[in-house]
Design goal:
Number of domains: 1
Shape: globular
Radius of gyration: 12 Å
Order of helices and strands: EEHHE
Number of strands: 3
Structural class: alpha+beta
Largest sheet: 3 strands, mixed
Number of helices: 2
Strand order of the largest sheet: 1-2-3
Strand content: 25-35%
Helix content: 25-40%
Length: 69
């Protein structure tokens, strides 16, 4: 989803910080695209986290998203 909202989609990458049932992911984007991913007052970042959590919950897991700066 993050690749669709940035100007440099080739620079988007995701790292798994904590694998397992309670996974933690870190999203890396180009520095110029950081504002696109965070959004006004963090609304876009909150939506990304919500979508990830909902997808993880469907398979019986939990997931968290951190955005690297």
């Amino acid at each position: 989803m993050a690749r669709g909202m940035v100007d440099h989609p080739d620079d988007v990458r995701v790292e798994v910080l904590e694998p397992g049932d309670d996974a933690c992911f870190e999203l890396h984007v180009h520095p110029d695209d950081l504002g696109h991913v965070i959004g006004k007052q963090g609304r876009t970042a909150r939506s990304l986290r919500l979508a990830l959590s909902a997808a993880a919950l469907r398979v019986g897991r939990r997931a968290d998203l951190e955005i690297a700066d």
